[in-house]
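A.,

Following up on our hallway conversation. Structure tokens first:
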């Protein structure tokens, strides 16, 4: 799909990055910007900055930065075009006329596109298999489980043939790479037979989607009576699928979760599918795994309220006990529903219906603390003073994870009242737990180590990646003024473009960024679209992610014009131009200053008259070159000022 640049520009201009980012994190105003805890990592102090004026973001914890498109790409793990398509309806821009396959010449390509295409092809292959006679067994299985044809279609459910290489054979015919199929875990290679074979065979197939709606993997349930085969198998982790970061059906549920301000968290694929089928569409599944911190953070993008409904067996209860701690540590509000014995969400909603299910939730949901108290009581956790002491400590371990001090205080009071234990005693015990957690464990060092304990240091890479910290102050100041000038017109761009000979940049990033901006300016001029030239949007076309992040960090720093009066736009632009010229002058002359200092140091370290004479001659030449550079710059400035 090719989307013209002017459409991408229009989408970007119609969006406010603050509104979009607010869907994922809680922003708080900090001066002219907004701040939040980083959505990309775990941190206690906010380091994530969003600039509404410049329409960019910067995460100082991870170094990531960019515009509204790159933010959505990061959060949803999708490519550029998919981010544009995802944001277009929100911007009120229709892309219907471009919904056809064509070379995507207007935007950066997604390096993982071939992987996504392979998975999409595989999902269609599995889904279409149910229309064949061999797939009737699988289709009947879904229908017997109460799944309607339209639900089968909506979730893309499918069938993996009871055949050794049907998928691989079809993939070869369609030109699908065997290497990528193997990397994604869809086929495996046997050394004995010297050939590939299908990894999923005789299984009901559940496509697993990213939050953005792309197929990233599969789950497969066995349909035969094979006793030695696992009931479920899943795709292995790959460059686009990390099981710990995915919740099944989040792509279908996220809008409803936002609307209802609550997510229902269940265990399995069928639980989610049955709930969605009856209209309870804010349900997602952890897919049989223990809830992870990454999954909790994914939930946190859309809501703070989570209702756990796992199976009521021992394994389900144990998983909820662990999962509660994960949720509350991430600042989420967890409540729990325990279903009647022998029921799971799938069976309960099929047998009792939507209304009864919702009524049961309303009547029987409990707070996470009440749930934990009940579980401990059922396990004999309060039958003796010793057992009660251990149970209280276990509960306090959970409560100590609460980041909200006020909520912690309220739960401590509730625990004190329910167990008839003094509040001060409970608080004192909590303090011990918190102190233990803060205190780093120290292992005694042995008096001697084997030689193997001190391996040879790893060799350094031949060329270290560029680091924004080593860009000189002069070049950083120049770049900041250069980039900010584009918010006020093209005078500076035209000046730099026509006076390239006076610039001698030291750092690769400075050259790259200047060349990139000049190339984009020339492109816009040639296309007669200078009216759409917009720095946040131009970042879409900078392939170097590190340089893009560096630009974002420069722009979210305090503006060179932050304290200037803004009553006159023309005066504001002239002040910005003045700052650029000042930075440029210092940048041009800085190399002469550095060379002069180096020569003076050399002079102090030598007593050789001939060497001193040579250094004096060099200093004299430097002075003449510096005077000429000042003169050339002054002449150049006349053209820009006039």
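Then the amino acids I'd put at each of the 642 positions:
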């Amino acid at each position: 799909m090719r989307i013209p640049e002017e459409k991408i520009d229009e989408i970007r201009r119609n969006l406010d990055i603050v509104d979009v980012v607010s869907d994922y994190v809680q922003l708080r105003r900090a001066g002219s910007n907004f701040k939040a805890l980083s959505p990309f990592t775990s941190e206690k102090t906010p380091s994530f900055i969003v600039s509404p004026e410049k329409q960019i973001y910067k995460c100082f914890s991870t170094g990531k930065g960019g515009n509204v498109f790159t933010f959505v790409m990061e959060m949803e793990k999708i490519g550029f075009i998919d981010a544009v398509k995802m944001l277009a309806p929100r911007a009120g821009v229709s892309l219907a006329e471009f919904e056809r396959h064509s070379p995507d010449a207007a935007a950066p390509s997604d390096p993982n596109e071939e992987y996504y295409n392979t998975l999409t092809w595989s999902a269609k292959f599995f889904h279409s298999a149910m229309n064949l006679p061999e797939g009737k067994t699988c289709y009947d299985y879904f229908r017997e489980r109460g799944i309607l044809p339209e639900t089968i279609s909506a979730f893309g459910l499918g069938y993996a043939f009871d055949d050794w290489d049907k998928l691989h054979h079809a993939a070869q015919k369609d030109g699908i790479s065997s290497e990528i199929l193997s990397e994604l875990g869809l086929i495996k290679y046997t050394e004995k037979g010297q050939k590939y074979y299908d990894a999923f065979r005789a299984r009901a197939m559940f496509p697993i989607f990213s939050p953005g709606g792309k197929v990233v993997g599969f789950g497969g349930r066995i349909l035969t009576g094979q006793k030695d085969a696992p009931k479920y198998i899943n795709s292995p982790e790959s460059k686009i699928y990390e099981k710990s970061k995915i919740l099944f059906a989040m792509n279908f549920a996220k809008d409803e979760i936002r609307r209802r301000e609550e997510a229902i968290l269940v265990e399995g694929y069928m639980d989610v599918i049955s709930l969605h089928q009856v209209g309870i569409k804010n349900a997602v599944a952890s897919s049989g795994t223990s809830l992870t911190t990454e999954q909790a953070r994914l939930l946190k993008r859309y809501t703070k309220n989570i209702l756990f409904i796992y199976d009521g067996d021992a394994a389900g209860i144990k998983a909820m006990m662990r999962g509660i701690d994960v949720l509350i540590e991430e600042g989420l509000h967890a409540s729990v529903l325990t279903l009647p014995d022998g029921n799971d969400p799938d069976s309960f909603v099929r047998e009792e219906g939507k209304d009864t299910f919702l009524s049961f939730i309303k009547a029987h949901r409990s707070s996470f603390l009440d749930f934990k108290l009940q579980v401990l009581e059922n396990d004999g956790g309060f039958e003796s003073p010793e057992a009660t002491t251990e149970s209280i400590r276990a509960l306090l371990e959970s409560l100590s994870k609460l980041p909200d001090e006020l909520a912690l205080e309220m739960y401590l009071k509730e625990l004190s009242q329910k167990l008839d234990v003094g509040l001060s005693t409970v608080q004192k015990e909590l303090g011990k737990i918190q102190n233990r957690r803060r205190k780093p464990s120290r292992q005694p060092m042995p008096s001697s180590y084997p030689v193997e304990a001190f391996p040879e240091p790893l060799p350094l890479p031949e060329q270290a990646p560029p680091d924004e910290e080593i860009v000189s102050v002069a070049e950083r100041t120049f770049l900041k003024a250069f980039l900010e000038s584009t918010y006020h017109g093209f005078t500076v761009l035209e000046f730099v473009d026509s006076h390239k000979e006076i610039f001698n940049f030291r750092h690769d990033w400075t050259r790259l960024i200047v060349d990139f901006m000049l190339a984009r300016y020339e492109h816009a001029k040639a296309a007669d679209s200078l009216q759409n030239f917009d720095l946040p949007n131009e970042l879409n076309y900078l392939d170097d992610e590190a340089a893009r992040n560096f630009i974002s960090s420069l722009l979210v720093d305090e503006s060179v014009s932050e304290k200037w009066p803004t009553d006159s736009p023309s005066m504001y632009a002239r002040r910005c131009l003045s700052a650029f010229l000042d930075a440029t002058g210092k940048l041009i002359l800085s190399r002469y200053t550095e060379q002069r200092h180096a020569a003076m140091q050399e002079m102090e370290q030598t007593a050789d008259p001939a060497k001193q004479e040579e250094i004096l001659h060099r200093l004299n030449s430097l002075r003449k070159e510096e005077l000429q550079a000042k003169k050339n710059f002054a002449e150049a400035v006349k053209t820009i000022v006039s």
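Residues 569-604 form the longest helix (36 residues). Curious whether your intuition agrees with the design.

B.
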